[in-house]
């Protein structure tokens, strides 16, 4: 039994990762430059990579072009639905007075439009983003801060993640983690991580762990 559920956002609450990957390479292709490979993208998913960021900026040619790419990406995310497993968990958590939070390596200003669009602000008690910490995932600081603000011990928090970087962050924060993968992360190697479960339906999570 857990007293709180803490969700990652990108790829977990809504499936933003494939949208970003495709939008990024569309803009790079428009510049007639070599696209970013899926393997390069996967290596930094759920975290940040200065090396990849530099390569992307070089391929796009300017900070302005990078801003335009992200603007295009964020516009594209406005049509994305909440993932069904998360929707069921949020509804159950609300009905059963389970505290809920979001811990994301993204800046809060980038995810809040979708948080509000999906009306998650009615149910989520805490949102922690990149601007709140010195180090993002796989560092555990985001999860530690979220648990602290929820006033729940990390051991009583269940984390829902989609990446190895995110899962490692939650585990190192002292939390149990369930990973729900998607097209981008389904073949990532989670073998070294002590997961509570992987790719399980919401009803099973509720029956087994909540």
Automatic annotation (TrEMBL):
Annotated source species: Mammaliicoccus vitulinus
PANTHER family: 2-DEOXYGLUCOSE-6-PHOSPHATE PHOSPHATASE 2, PSEUDOURIDINE-5'-PHOSPHATASE
Record Pfam families: HAD_2 (PF13419)
Protein name: HAD family hydrolase
Entries under NCBIfam families matching the protein: HAD-SF-IA-v3
């Amino acid at each position: 039994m857990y007293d709180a559920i803490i969700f990652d956002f990108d790829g977990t609450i809504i499936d933003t990762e494939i949208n970003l990957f495709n939008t990024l390479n569309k803009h790079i292709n428009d510049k007639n430059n070599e696209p970013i490979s899926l393997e390069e993208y996967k290596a930094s998913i759920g975290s940040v990579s200065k090396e990849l960021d530099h390569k992307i900026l070089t391929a796009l040619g300017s900070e302005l072009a990078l801003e335009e790419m992200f603007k295009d990406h964020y516009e594209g995310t406005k049509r994305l639905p909440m993932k069904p497993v998360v929707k069921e968990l949020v509804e159950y958590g609300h009905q059963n007075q389970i505290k809920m939070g979001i811990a994301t390596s993204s800046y809060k200003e980038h995810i809040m439009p979708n948080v509000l669009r999906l009306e998650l602000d009615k149910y989520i008690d805490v949102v922690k983003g990149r601007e709140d910490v010195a180090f993002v995932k796989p560092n555990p600081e985001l999860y530690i801060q979220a648990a602290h603000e929820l006033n729940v011990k990390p051991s009583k928090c269940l984390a829902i993640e989609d990446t190895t970087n995110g899962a490692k962050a939650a585990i190192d924060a002292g939390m149990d983690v369930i990973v729900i993968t998607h097209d981008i992360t389904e073949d990532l190697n989670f073998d070294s991580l002590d997961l509570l479960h992987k790719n399980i339906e919401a009803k099973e999570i509720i029956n087994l762990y909540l």
